[in-house]
Design goal:
The chain is mainly alpha-helical. It is about 60% helix and about 0% strand. The protein is globular, with a radius of gyration of 20 Å.
Length: about 325
């Protein structure tokens, strides 16, 4: 079993790397924040019909943000985020969770209500866990984190039959599995099953790739092996884009750049970048991909991507203004 502290994915991302948050001017941030605020308002009003309608719309349409991440993923993420604010032990009165209970009672056959319940359990666990290394967490907080995460995992298993038609079931189940340090073979089996049912949901392989990343006890070889395995589940023309996004999702889970490890197939990732941008030419994507091209030492591609950027520097993509400026100047130097 890998000795993970915890691998968290909220976006690509992710299900949450250690990157700084996106700039408030980012259209991508505005979309995600808009979903967060809408979910919060609907839940606050106990407008369960509105929540069901919103999730059903995202599920049917496959709507994505300007970067190409599924809005349904952000819907469940929004619920989890709401519950990270307070530390309430299992068994104690929890007015916010009581709302979800009333939602489940009103829509007992809905996958959305049950997945919302699991998402809130995971959120409550993270209220105790936080995002630091395991050594920074008290034994008491670690116990509460484990109890909530185990409860979420058990709840998802209990309701799999009615919920697995929603890709969110696999996203949440994998999130719990990673946090509970499942055996690698069991986690991979769950990824394979999820990708067979929901090949368009990129969050499923993202979870696995982060699990195998060096920062959490894995290796560059393990990440590459997992990425190649995931590619087999999608049509050939979709593989470069998925490959690029998988490595994007692991960017915060390496001790250093993944390109320093010489494991990444840069020609394949470069093609994937072009494929993603053909569908989602957002500044969010351009800036992240320009940074990866710079790390990969591809001067021509770095310049080409940076020349297309129209918005101010996106901190989430560059981590540091000096990095952005270095890549910008380097890409314009004569070879």
């Amino acid at each position: 079993m890998l000795c993970l502290s915890i691998a968290l994915v909220t976006l690509p991302c992710a299900v949450g790397t250690a990157h700084a948050g996106p700039s408030i001017s980012s259209p991508e941030y505005a979309e995600r924040n808009g979903i967060q605020l809408q979910v919060e308002a609907l839940l606050g009003d106990e407008d369960f019909a509105g929540l069901e309608a919103l999730a059903n719309r995202y599920r049917r349409s496959g709507e994505a943000t300007t970067s190409g991440t599924l809005k349904l993923t952000h819907f469940y993420e929004a619920l989890s985020n709401l519950y990270e604010a307070d530390q309430i032990s299992l068994g104690q009165d929890d007015p916010m969770r009581d709302r979800i209970t009333r939602w489940v009672k009103k829509y007992p056959r809905s996958p959305t209500s049950h997945l919302a319940m699991a998402a809130t359990m995971l959120g409550r666990g993270m209220a105790y866990r936080g995002y630091g290394y395991s050594s920074s967490i008290s034994a008491e907080d670690a116990a509460h984190f484990h109890a909530y995460t185990e409860a979420a995992s058990n709840y998802l298993a209990e309701h799999k039959k009615k919920c697995a038609s929603d890709a969110g079931w696999y996203e949440l189940a994998l999130s719990a599995a990673v946090r509970l340090n499942w055996e690698a073979t069991d986690l991979v089996a769950l990824v394979d099953e999820g990708m067979a049912k929901h090949p368009g949901d990129t969050m499923i392989p993202f979870m696995a790739a982060q699990y195998f990343a060096p920062k959490w006890g894995g290796s560059p070889y393990a990440v590459e092996s997992m990425a190649r395995r995931a590619l087999e589940a999608v049509p050939e023309h979709d593989r470069p884009a998925l490959y690029a996004r998988i490595y994007w999702s692991t960017a915060g889970s390496y001790y250093s750049s993944p390109f320093a490890e010489k494991q990444v197939d840069w020609p394949l990732m470069s093609q994937g970048i072009d494929d993603v941008l053909a569908r989602y030419p957002s500044d969010w994507n351009l800036q992240n991909f320009a940074h990866f091209a710079c790390q990969a030492g591809d001067k021509a591609k770095t310049r080409s991507l940076m020349d297309r950027i129209t918005l101010p520097m996106e901190l989430h993509a560059w981590w540091d203004a000096d990095v952005y400026e270095h890549c910008r100047q380097w890409s314009r130097e004569a070879s």
